[in-house]
Amino acid sequence: MADPVPPSIPAEWSPETVLVHGGTMRSPFGETSETLYLTQSYIYGTAEQAEARFKDEEPGFIYSRFSNPTVAMLEERIRLLEGAEAARATATGMAAVTSALLSYLSAGDHVVAAKALFGSCRYVVEELCPRFGISCTLVDGTDLAAWKKAITPKTKAVFFETPANPTLDLVDIRAVSDLAHAVGALVFVDNVFATPLMQKPLALGADVVVYSATKHIDGQGRCLGGLILCSAQFLKDYLQVFLRQTGPSMSPFNAWVLLKSLETLPVRVRAQCTAAAEIAATLETKPGITRVLYCGSKNHPQAELARKQMSGGGQVVTFEVAGGKAAAFRFLNALKIMKISNNLGDAKSIVTHPATTTHQRLKPEARAELGISDGMIRLSVGLEAPVDLLADLDRGLAAMRAG
Predict the structure, then answer these.
(1) Residues 296, 277 contacting (CB under 8 angstroms)
(2) What architecture does CATH give domain 15-262?
């Protein structure tokens, strides 16, 4: 079903302007804010019109499991920001990952993925895909030689997140895309940590980009959502029919919330990145901190690659404390401003202990291989005053040392 085409926008508009106005479709009432269309289905003027819409001969909406005006505005706005030919919204970030991969892959296909993946993403490629006859190979995403060795003529897709959760490992998007395309494989990139503002995987050679809109795009802990950016051909040949028939649909209400969030995304991300850079630099000077990882730091193991493919350091800082799990827990439990949770990209600063939360399903040896120690803490920097966050970190460090 072909959706109505939103009004075009001038090509010279900056991202900030696109994120306020892009994709907006107004009703005859001329509302300022985007309209929230809480409807399941749509009425046709004639039986002939209904037939034409179902045959894709006339643009229009049929059923909100397929498409919805509010959701369509969100899809168009993120499409414009990303520079993609097509975009589709899903109920969650994991629905986006699973739909993008499984709409394309079939029994007998081979996937190569980076080992450093969010736990649920790793489940999809390592456990779910093999149940359907899709084999997978996991590699060190930072090692180009490992990618080259693993990608074979049977490889249909490669999948990675960069920066990776929680170690902030980077994958060279251009180099891996070249290797994949040489054997006809498509490249799927989870771009959550970098956000669509700081990294453009499609421009670097990727074919499909996925987001958990739950993170920075919502940015205020309110709702779930996922996004898939791809070519018009991929949408037509694989994704559209999969989404229509399996139904991982985004709620129109969530789409409306995310539309309003996109208006402030640049302001929020800039402030968070500035604070994260200050916090990372300060943590490097603190006794009891054994390692600090931040993509914007000159001390990041892949600092040169970060500068090459990212326009900012991001708002996630990962660090390790001496003393393992017990010390990490003392640190976390002493915090007053930063909240213990497993989300990120929020206006509130959030800390988590990956070894016992997001990556607890992995065996200890798998976590060790990824560099996820019992003393590792992931900090998602929010919008609080940096001076208050630094004081909170000092509070945590004092409690850690006192134990």
Answers:
(1) yes
(2) 3-Layer(aba) Sandwich (3.40)
